[in-house]
Each structure stands twice: as structure tokens, then as C-alpha cells.
Amino acid sequence: MRAELLAALAALCWAVGSLFSAAASSRMGAFAFTRWRLMFATLMLWALSAWTGQWHSLDAAAVAWLGLSGFIGIFVGDTALFACMNRLGPRRCGLLFATHALFSAALAWVFLGESLWGWTLVGSTVRVSGVMAAIAWGRRGDETHDWERTRGQLRTGVALGLLAALGQSVATLMIKPLMSTGVDAVSASAVRTSVALGAHLVLLWAGWPLARMQQPLDARTFWNTAASAWIAMALGMTLILWALRDGQANLVGIFSSITPVLLLPLLWGVYRRRPASGAWVGAALVVAGSALIVLG
Fold this sequence. Notes:
- By secondary structure, this protein is mostly helical.
- Helices cover 79% and strands 0% of the residues.
- The chain has one domain (3-295).
- The relative contact order is 0.25.
- The model has no long low-confidence stretch (mean pLDDT 84).
């Protein structure tokens, strides 16, 4: 598949996974939820890597670099993401996280020499604008769902969302050159989740209060966490690594940023309420921007 399509499929995985994540993360707390999520994803990824035998594609240097990427992108980035979601809800958290497309484009230009010109630049600009519009104007005026509430300080939630976006962008930039060498994506994902899980366990064993489970784990929360891990992390993250193998890091970042737009019809199913007209405008811009990028 084209790298852009793989990135878009990863965005779909993240959108579906966020529906399982919102309630579970709120109940467990951001650190405990991320820790359990990493445990499920790590077990699944290593099982697949062992079954295919592709873990042999990893060497010590690759493991070290992937581990650092996992610490930045998953331990820091994902934990900040779910802390933001607990404060602002999935819709506004999605808006902030979508800025990783802008961070990715800027960092790829500075460090990898990747640039966007002509129709590709126009399409990317239209596409990112569509994502922002879909989320910024995607809430109906009379919407009262619990996910639209602000818990704690707004500026704290905004800072966490931007930190998550920056962590995602930096981690993507780091592993782009490595993936181009033919490292197995599933094994690479397993290394990244293992390092992030290890960091979370250190916090838990050190007795840090925020790392503890906020409420007892029930069966529904258990399975929601597992579904989020398998769909969003194990599958979605592996698709991103596959996309980075052949695609430009800036375009992979832009195409993977459509999660908020894909989330709108999914939230429609949860809310049983049609999204606001601004959401449809944003979605139309995303489609138009995609067409311009393909043209470019």
C-alpha cells in the first residue's frame, strides 16, 4: 500500500481505539491506563514477532534507538495524551493532538530535508485546516455529553495535548531513517512498547501516587483497555512504522492526523446526535486536501 494510505488506516485505528479509551482512562487514571494498555500491546506484539521470527532483524543499535523513541513517543507522549483526554474529552484532545502534523512537517524539513511544494503543499495545508475546522466547529451548541466537560485547569489540558503531539512528532522523526533500512515493523513496535512499559513499572514500584489505579478494575474497563491496546497501539502504531519505511515523514504525519475527522462519525454513533455543520465542512476540506496531495 501507499505510505499515505497506511498512515490514514493508522489514524482510523486511533479513532476507534479512543472510543474504548475515554471511559477506561478516566476511571483508571492516565498512568495506570497507559501501563495496562502497554502490557496488552507488548504481549501481543512480541507474540507476533516470535511467531514470524522477524525479531532477528533487530540489532543492539536499533533496539537502543527504538527504545529511546518509545520513551519519548509512548511513555511521555501517550501518557500526556490520555491525561489531556481525561481533562478535555476526546474531541478537544483530538484537536490538540492533530497539531502533530504541523510539528512533523516542520521537524522533517529541518532534520530530514523533506519539503512540500506545489499541489502537495497546497493539499497538505487544506487537509490540516480541515482537521482543525472539523474539531473546532464540530460541537453542537446544545451538546451536554460528559466528554465535553473541562476537568481541572484548561491550560493544563492544552499543555498536555501539545506535549503529546510534540512527543509523537519527535518519535516519528527519530525512527524514520531506521525503518528505511528494513527493520521489521512489528518487532520495532514491540521494542518501543516494552521500554515504555518498563518506565511505567518503575514509577509504580517507586510508589509514585499518580501511577496507582484510581478506581478498582472491573471487567468492562479491562476489556475496553485491551481493545484500545490491540487496535490503536499494536495495529495502529505498526501501520505507522510500515508507512515510514517508504513514505516521507511529513506526509505520514499529515495523513495520520485525520483521526479527529474519523472520530466524528464514531462519536455520532455514541452521542446519537448528528455532528455540527462545521464538522462536515472540515471533513470536506480533508477530502479535498487528500485529492490535491495525490495530484501533487
